[in-house]
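Reviewer 2 asked us to include a model.

Predict the structure of this chain.
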Amino acid sequence: MTTPNPLRLARKFARYSAALVGAVGMASMSFLPASAQDMPELSLKFGHPYNEAHPLSRGAQKFADIVKEKSGGKITVTVYPNSTIGSSRDLVESLQIGGVVDFALVPTTNVASFYAPLDIFYLPFIFRDREHAYAVADGPVGKKLYEDMLKKTGIRTLAMYESGFRTITTRNTKVEKPDDMKGVKFRVVNNPLNVATFKALGANPTPMALSEVFTGLQQGTIDGQDNPVGNVKAFGFDKVQKFITLSNHQWAGIMFLADDKMWQKQPEAVQKLFQDAALDTQAWERETLNEEEAKYLSEMEAGGMTVTRLTPEQTKAFQAAMKKVWDEYRGKLGSELISSVVETK
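Predicted model (structure tokens):
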């Protein structure tokens, strides 16, 4: 009997082991989506001003989770809530500069400081209801605005989340008619349109970053503020405010923005992943917000907050008082843009 050559056996074993390892590697790769195999290694930052419990914050985290999963773990998006890497204005400035933050959630009214036509979203009472706001934000009017904004600012819009229709909260004054706002020290978003809106009601508008509002209300620097129900609850404003009026004077669209310099560096598969994930989470965030808003309102009412629901006649009184804002901004925004929004079905 021929004795096996130990060297030959070792070589055969080595070839077999290499083939086995290769087969196992190929098998494990087959479990990844085809596009994930070609994804680059990326570590990105996503900033926003919202509390972790808010649907907006959860939507941002959901986006990060989807991107990580679909990229096979190669692309990591770290979410920074609560203005931890900058206020809304800071985030927009960072996106313009490039290389500081990659994604951000910012209200249209803050972005309007950099691209004025976005003020159209905050013209008081321009939207009939949520469906009208969605039709504008997602349709031809919105897309045209986002394309023009990209050309002029270098900031890309991937989606439009929302925080809902804005309400009025106050410490001591039950607001049922425009005259109730006279002399009230009132926090507004730092945007001339928001200042004009509450000056029209006779209030004393005080621009202030969202992250500073709770302390301002608590210390009496301001007596009231306007925010959607979800923000009032998430930021604890109901703990330092006694009254809330469901005025619905403005719809708060929250822009899902991206640094276009970062975007342009990515292969088409990565761009598609980001765009698809942004739109998927847009749908989830809107649905979740609307479901939870009624719950938040019930909790605040049970906690002692007085809720005022305006009648159609009372709403008309607020609309009439804010007509001067339309007159002022018709020249700034253009009658054509305003008509295109009003006429959107």
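Residues 40-342 form a domain with the D-Maltodextrin-Binding Protein; domain 2 fold (CATH 3.40.190.170). Residues 1-34 have pLDDT under 50 and may be disordered. We have added this to the supplementary material.
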